[in-house]
Amino acid sequence: MPVLNAPKQIVFIISLVLVAAAVMGALVAIPFVSAYAFWIAVIGYVLLAAGVALKGV
After folding, report:
1. Is the pTM higher than 0.70?
2. 52 with 6: CB under 8 angstroms?
């Protein structure tokens, strides 16, 4: 079973900002974000998963 680590604070904050922007883009019309809200959220969660799965990230 793989060992999971806590992500660094900067990785957590970046992923949080991306997911928050995606949620806001889904609720409110924001020019670029609203068109790609799903993919922005996916990128945020993938970044967070990479920060948890990879050591030192």
Report:
1. yes
2. yes
